[in-house]
Amino acid sequence: MAARDIPITDSEHGPQPGWTPTLTSSGSPIGSFTVRLLQISTFQNTSFVDTEGFGLLEDIELGALDKRTWSIHFYQPWVRPALPRSDWDTIENMIKIYLQKFSHLINDGASARDVPYPFVVQCMAGCELYPNRTSRAFAYVGYNGQDFLSYDVDHGKWILYEDTDLSRYVQATLQNYTAFSELVQVLFNDTCVDDMELLLRYGKAALARQEPPVATVFARAPSPAQLLLVCHVTGFYPRPISVAWLRDGQEVLPGPALTTSAILPNSDLTYQLRIVLAMSPGDGHSYTCRIRHRSLGTRSLLIPWGMF
């Protein structure tokens, strides 16, 4: 059994049934853009907290926080000039004030509720800008990798994911913790449209980047009665992609025989994934892996599998 690559083939009639509209990495329709600030704080004990923070425009890393000084380190040369220095100073100062209070708040809550150390708290806040210049701000809090709370920006309220004693306590605490809500309000509600449009203007080339996918198909035989057809797709950017197995030209629908991996990053800032189809050897059908991606336009990359 061997892998075989063939040239990109134009789809006969453009997007076919089952085609998923191209989305941004945040899962929003094309034409909208999302900026996010992410924070991961690991509380080893009451006296040691390790905090990482970084910012993203779509999946482009804009910068990160220095762990010692909490100052911003810019990763893209166009980010700092996009906003006035005074704006960056305001953002940096608000983040420092927020993080100082955050650590004390969480430790006090852990002590009051006998929460065992170590534990991890994740926070994400940002805004999404739509083509009509409206925007939506959002904020979420996670605990040990699980969804915990979300912030209703319009009503200024924290919403529980799970109703537990700990989540209710954190909800009540955050409701009175204005530094977080003020950070979200100022950065992502009041100034989202203006600041995002500046970032989009300065980052236009980075956001327009496209890398076409490269695909390979091969088979594995875990037993004499079963073959696993693997379609490995790599090297593509941006992240959204549609990959499907076709049986005799018809898309194989999701089910027990079909397994799709998560989309994973490569070291060159592209992405990869694989889709695996279980089948019986010699079943008489033809199989083709079909890839659709923004870089291909209306075309599809078709990779057939066969025994040679």
From TrEMBL:
<dbReference type="InterPro" id="IPR037055">
    <property type="entry name" value="MHC_I-like_Ag-recog_sf"/>
</dbReference>
<dbReference type="InterPro" id="IPR011161">
    <property type="entry name" value="MHC_I-like_Ag-recog"/>
</dbReference>
<dbReference type="GO" id="GO:0071723">
    <property type="term" value="F:lipopeptide binding"/>
</dbReference>
<protein>
    <submittedName>
        <fullName>Antigen-presenting glycoprotein CD1d-like</fullName>
    </submittedName>
</protein>
<dbReference type="GO" id="GO:0005615">
    <property type="term" value="C:extracellular space"/>
</dbReference>
<dbReference type="GO" id="GO:0030884">
    <property type="term" value="F:exogenous lipid antigen binding"/>
</dbReference>
<dbReference type="InterPro" id="IPR007110">
    <property type="entry name" value="Ig-like_dom"/>
</dbReference>
<feature type="region of interest" description="Disordered">
    <location>
        <begin position="1"/>
        <end position="25"/>
    </location>
</feature>
<dbReference type="GO" id="GO:0048007">
    <property type="term" value="P:antigen processing and presentation, exogenous lipid antigen via MHC class Ib"/>
</dbReference>
<dbReference type="Pfam" id="PF16497">
    <property type="entry name" value="MHC_I_3"/>
</dbReference>
<feature type="domain" description="Ig-like">
    <location>
        <begin position="212"/>
        <end position="293"/>
    </location>
</feature>
<dbReference type="GO" id="GO:0030883">
    <property type="term" value="F:endogenous lipid antigen binding"/>
</dbReference>
<dbReference type="GO" id="GO:0006955">
    <property type="term" value="P:immune response"/>
</dbReference>
<dbReference type="GO" id="GO:0009897">
    <property type="term" value="C:external side of plasma membrane"/>
</dbReference>
<dbReference type="InterPro" id="IPR050208">
    <property type="entry name" value="MHC_class-I_related"/>
</dbReference>
<dbReference type="InterPro" id="IPR036179">
    <property type="entry name" value="Ig-like_dom_sf"/>
</dbReference>
<dbReference type="InterPro" id="IPR013783">
    <property type="entry name" value="Ig-like_fold"/>
</dbReference>
<dbReference type="GO" id="GO:0001916">
    <property type="term" value="P:positive regulation of T cell mediated cytotoxicity"/>
</dbReference>
<dbReference type="InterPro" id="IPR003597">
    <property type="entry name" value="Ig_C1-set"/>
</dbReference>
<dbReference type="InterPro" id="IPR011162">
    <property type="entry name" value="MHC_I/II-like_Ag-recog"/>
</dbReference>
<dbReference type="GO" id="GO:0048006">
    <property type="term" value="P:antigen processing and presentation, endogenous lipid antigen via MHC class Ib"/>
</dbReference>
<dbReference type="Pfam" id="PF07654">
    <property type="entry name" value="C1-set"/>
</dbReference>
<keyword id="KW-0325">Glycoprotein</keyword>
